[in-house]
Design a protein that fits this description.
Elements lengths: L6 E2 L11 E5 L2 E10 L2 E5 L2 H6 L15 E5 L2 E3 L3 E11 L2 E10 L5 E2 L9 E5 L4 E3 L2 E3 L5 E2 L4 E7 L8 E6 L3 H9 L10 E8 L2
Parallel strand pairs: 5-16
Antiparallel strand pairs: 1-2, 2-3, 3-4, 6-7, 7-8, 8-14, 9-13, 10-11, 10-15, 12-14, 15-16
Length: 199
Amino acid sequence: MNKFLLLTALLTGTVGAQTRTVFINGVALPATPVQKNGETYYQLRASDLKRVGAITAGGVTPNIEAVKGCVGDTLFNGVYTVQLLSVAQNGERFGAVLKVSNASKKELQNFMLFYPADVKAVNRAGNAVETNNYDGPWFDRLLPGTHVTVRPSTGNTNIRDFTRLLIRPGASFIKELRDAQLPLAKVYNMESDLTCKKK
């Protein structure tokens, strides 16, 4: 497979479970374990592999600038996961609901994650609006294996028809993760396509 195919051996579920979770290109995909000649292999749907960029037309290596998925996909950057649960237009404000989970073995402080303004809603024309507001609590700290739900939102804006939600952590956040020697992936930006939903 191409050099950008990131297969993370993070398998969840109990022993004997029919399906497991495998992260490919930073996106969680369901996989079915199959035994053959004493080896365990994982079957994945071709449509899922194509959707996350593991299969490309003509074997072209994709230029991956961000871990990409649909609404409902769990995206992984080597340290934490983000799942876009939902988005909504509320009058002149646009908001999202994100589930952020610590997948590392260390406690994550709020300065290791991202600010609301690092989340951007983008429309079809390429206009980006920062979600510099938030409803309810924001990050304080995340212990290993825990998660928090955050709700970033834009201020009043006349821009509509958003098609993508970007998470672009600032340089200071990336530095903190690297200084803490956490296994941050080479591709750590995240992007959710609002026009598709995880099946």
